[in-house]
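Q: What does the predicted 3D structure of RNase H type-1 domain-containing protein look like?
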Amino acid sequence: MVSTPSWCDKIECGCVSNGERIWIGMGVVARDHEGNVVAAAVRRLRAWWPPQIAEGRAILLAVKLARRLRHENIIIESDCESLIQRLSKASTYLSDFDNVLEDILASCSVFDSIQWIHVKRDDNLVAHHLAKLVPFGTEQVWVNHYPYEISPYVISIRQFVLLLVHQFLTFKKKEANKNNWILQLQSSLFT
């Protein structure tokens, strides 16, 4: 997971398909700089897209959600490394995949800044599980909350972050106590 600067919002996106690639599910989770979920979206389509195009469509859904929320500075995370590399270079050619890239890049013109980050599948767990949901209709968006089906994943990530912060503060406190003990010893020896 990438830590998010205070002036930026993070959008995680992912997609899943059934074995025959007949149904494509896309999931998007928008977080503020503190890691709180501010919105979520899921879209399910009947399509026969290759995995790269499906991931590209999930990123396009993420960009559209960020625009709808009026975010200005965003970080987009995806587990599709080749797609993130191409978006980072803003390079397009003449394939179906490049049409998706052009749609994404054109939709990004409203942002003050955008970063494309590749993450491992395990770090994209919330969006991946969200993509498995079946929405009412083809698309569903939640603003200021998220579906209860992904709550265990959202909570576990928050608990993990809180645990890391607690361990860091405990370590710092022990280091400070250790340094105080050393300083007290030094002052008693040299006075």
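A (community wiki): The structure tokens above were generated from the sequence. Strands lie at 9-17, 23-31, 37-46, 73-78, 113-118, 139-143. The chain has a mean pLDDT of 77.
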